[in-house]
Model the fold of this input.
Amino acid sequence: MSQAASADLSAFPAAAAAAGRMSSWQNWGTLLVLPYLAVFFVFVLYPVGYGLWLGNDLQSYRELFADDIFWRSVVNTIIFLGVGVNLKLAIALLLSGFFAVPRWWIRLLGLLFILPWAVPSIPTILSFRFMLNPEWGVINQVYYNLTFLDGPNWLNNPTLGLSLSIVVHIWKSLPFWTLILLAGRLAISKEMYEAAAIDGASALQRFRFITWPSMRQLYLTCTILSMFFTLGDFNSVYLLTGGGPADLTHVLATLGIRYIRLDQVDLAMASIICALPLMAPLMVFMMRRLSK
Amino acid sequence: MRKFFTEARLLLVAIPVFLWTMIPLYHLMLFAISPKDTAFKGKLWPDDPTLRNFELVLQQKHYYLNNFWHQMWNSLVIALAVGFITLFVATAAAFAISRLRVRGGRLIMNLALLTYFVPAAFLALPMYKAMAVYGLLNTQWALIFAMVAIATPYAIWVLKQAGDKLPIELDEAAIIDGATAPQLFRFIFLPLMAPSMVAVGTYALLLAWNEYLYAFLLLSRDVDTTLAVALGAFLSADDSPWELLMTAGLIYALPPAAIYYAFRRYMAADLTSGSVKS
Done:
């Protein structure tokens, strides 16, 4: 069999040389993926495996489920995701239409608009935090000048604190998603809009029958990707409220740090592992979607 | 008249977008140029703007800022290291998967994608424990490798998408001319992929420069940490000199903004095109 194959190949010297080169290519290929595989095994797979092993004690789940703060964090996480992701992407979809309008000053505004995403979280979130300070913050100063009443103690109220964390999260990540959706919108053929204009379609109809059908798939991809990123958003909560007051604004991303502070590493791991069954199906779904 | 209404409607969107974006940033800058204790007054422009805060920060004249330049340097070294290592690892892998069609390439791509979906904050504690096992905790290598592990999946994915778009005829012509794999890499892949590589390198560099959580977990000594951690330390104190914190924060935010604008052309095209595909 192999003889026949080699006889076949010898009839075509170029093909034989190419086949020889193909196997040398495979060797090069293997060599070149090794650095990534090393990074993956040492700094992703091993930590994850070690984490799972640390979190395999049933006792720590019993303790975790007995902790009210854990359940509070789960509810907070669901609110953070449900409101944060959908509100952000809905606004991003609307704004992508605005930024697609060809005007020099809209392009200029687009340059500024990207800043929250490009600069680090820590200075800007601290800026938010100081604006919200009940005594000296600029928001309550303005509030007092307008109403002669003392403004609320924004971050000392769990509902307001969590809501403001969502606002900060949206402020930070809105530009990125607007940019992605803008790219999707600009990829739609102009001819469709021209044809619709000739037929006298209204703006709403153009959105309903051209823009949305073309962008629906992209919008779904963005929603799920954004869920993963939002789930991992530590900064927007931790730097704004620190999980307070009384640990009532923690989300799963910050809860681990709280348990570490309390020297309960196994609870920290358990709280992360609890999120896995929810995430795994979405991760596989997205992998199939993006690896095509 | 109709044109006027169109422009007016656009402005009606533009003004809130402008205010929403700029108010927190302007507030940050206002603090940096206001003398101590007057920034709290809620004025749009300070009565006597000053660069005194910058002077104090740059000369490290506060015990919170004793290591300002050192930490700035750490941030820079770590960001550059992450940028270059990520670029090296991801380019090699993307070339092997996309052009050499290495066996198991699809599986590796899927592993990378799965890693990309793991929320960074969830990986932080396992990473922290693993770094302790490796004995890397409190060394800058810990942060560098952690950030490389986080940045490479997306980098490989973007580069693979871009690599797949190069016409296969180029490779075929090179094969007929007897090119080896390294030659293919050097003369076809590298020149054509340069813009995507700039985008990916910049992405990894900014990710590392801006990182707070991992830096704060993996590094603890003042002389090792990055500027992000140093700024976070202000939070725990009641007597924080806020105007200096804001000034240092502004200085810390300038390089990534500048880098972003410098490479914006590449970033916008490449980092978004990957996601738009499906």
